[in-house]
Predict the 3D structure of the following.
Amino acid sequence: MRSTAHPTQYWHPLNDGRVQCDLCPRFCKLKEGQRGLCYIRGNHQGQIKLYSWGRSSGFCIDPIEKKPLNHYYPGEPILSFGTAGCNLNCKFCQNWDISKSRDTDILAKNALPEQLAKTALKNNCLGVAFTYNDPVIFMEYALDVADACHELGLKTVAVTAGYICEEPRKTFFSAMDAANIDLKSFSESFYKKICGGSLSSVLDTLLHLRFETKTWFEITNLIIPGMNDSDQELEQMCRWIVSELGHDIPIHFSAFHPDYKMRDIPPTQASTLSRARKIALNCGINFAYTGNIHDAVGGSTFCSYCGVLLIERDWYQLGHWSLNETGKCQNCGTPLAGVFNSTPGKWGRKRVMLTI
């Protein structure tokens, strides 16, 4: 097993003896032995090292739709895992027990990249998804896993908030076949006060994915009652997506539940998600979905031209399928944006925990 203090690339020494991490816009300046806000990167002997290489908080086979990705090999299973820590400080974090963990001893020590790739292959998974906590903070580990996956013909998926600097952004997403970007709000004030980050950096990531990569990506917006759910903000966000990214980037509106430091806010009502979906469609987004609620219409995919049902979803269970072998609508021949097999996957809604 390699040392848990694994070398990293994006940092530089300062004149006062500290070292600056250049991975994300936080630019943590650390003395010897200090760790950044993410906690898993720190100053070790005058260099920024990663403390979670080869270690994971758990493994699970999920449906790809759970990431969520509705336009990337629907119905296929994917091996999901994360580590610990996060480079944002969202007060509403829904995975705070992992992302806010300050104890790397909770991480398993048997998660080498080759083992992960072979486990995904053995279990007939599409590939590996980096999720549960943000993979940009364990970038070097994720890249090594991605290399191992690609050698076996497997795919890689990043579920991330996209809070990363320009140069590491290029390196990270060059190894990702697909991604879901968590666009938490369309307000700089929200990002600063609620997440401890910046909206502009995330928008830069979305633009990079759209125009400088071949990575398929979708967007998730977690809607919090009274915080980021106004018609004005939702419309502003959706109009930006259409004008800057195009009509065909799917967006998922997800339901908040009270957690971490925001337990006094009520859960998101299904009607709020449906309202957000309607706003997105009215703004010209072709594919808008509701998440974390039972909504067969809001979870299904319809042709952007003729409106016919293309992919029926009941939670994560696929039903009616009306795509031809080339990923086009069987009714009118309009191509469906995304990446598809000639037939749907059959994994269903199963969630299988693994020990590696």
